Amino acid sequence: MTSQPKRQPPRATKKGKDRSQADSAWKDILSDFLQAFMIFSFSEDADKIDWTQAYESLDKEMVEVSEESGFGVQSADKLFKVHLLTGEEKLLLLHIEVQGYKDDNFARRVYDYNDLIRRKYKLEVESFAVLSDPDKNFRPNYYQRQSGRTRLLFEFAMIKLLDWWVRWHELEQNENPFALVVMAHLKTQRLKRRPIELKEAKIQLIRLLFARGYTHDYVLKLLRFIVWLVKLPPALEAEVRQEVKRLNEEVKMPYVTAWEELAKEEGKQEGKQEGLREGMFILLSGQLEQRLGTIEPELKQQLEQLNPQRLQELGKHLFSLTSQADLKAWLQP
Q1: What are the tens digits of pLDDT across the range 28-62?
Q2: N or C: which end of the chain has fewer CB within 10 A?
Q3: Range list of β-strands (E), 136-286
Q4: How far is 111 from 129, CA to CA, in rounded Å?
Q5: CA distance 110 to 131
Q6: SS3 14
Q7: Nearest 10 degrees: Cα torsion 309, 312, 316, 319
Q8: Are 278 and 306 in contact (CB under 8 A)?
Q9: pLDDT tens, residue by residue, 110-156
Q10: Closest CA to 96 of 134, 56, 123, 131
Q11: If residue 247 lies in a helix (H) or strand (E), which one and from where to where?
Q12: Among positive and negative, which fits the CA dihedral 249, 254, 255, 260?
């Protein structure tokens, strides 16, 4: 296989941050609900897996392969090791396209990953693709290439989330947890520019989640995904929280409401991130003033707004900045 040049990591942008968060959210939901996902999406394949044996999420191995392939580590692709009912071990390679538009290189990437992993770990690899984009005509399920009389054809299983729109009633009746994941994705995709309707959809999804009778752990994990995915303006989010509070009182979840527990968890993570960002800012500000003198107020204000990733980048470029004009140029979007 011809190696591809390494792709340069993207500069930190809001779009890039959103993509990274999307990747992370999908990775978490797949790790937590792999069996539900496989039953929902690829039931024939799910029936061959021995679910009484624990499956293993190979995140470290996937990062290594991602770096080797040149596609970067922010992809939502996941690699799992499972046991079949025959006693064999097998690797499941799941590809999730979450960027919202079709990727003409997608089928080649599925093939490259499959080939790299099979050769690297000496195990059979089965590839599955989940397409979440809104293009109804984008349906890659094979990769082929030909040189003279030598021809390669690589086929893989694929589902298109968009197809579930015409089967919405089935989703509402389906108690598989992954059905709620698909519903949240589809509603967000269709209503993202209609926040009032999206608010009502979010409340309905959470109401359905609480009515399903899932365990507290299931509710929390699914609620985390819905809260992350279905973004609303602060005023509308406050209305959702009030409705969720009322729903919690109705269902009387034990010990602590799922919403409160999620808020505590998010608060802890935000606190850690803010503490990290504050410490980095103080350190870099001192180093910059040693090199460049007292920082102009406007530049200092821009520095205060940098996230931890951008502050890390600044630390790497620190010694290439010889004037405040250089710093100003670096801070330009």
Answers
A1: 898 899 999 999 999 999 999 999 999 999 888 88
A2: C
A3: 142-147, 150-155, 157-160
A4: 11
A5: 12
A6: helix
A7: 120
A8: no
A9: 898 899 899 888 888 999 999 988 999 999 999 999 999 999 999 99
A10: 131
A11: helix 234-251
A12: negative
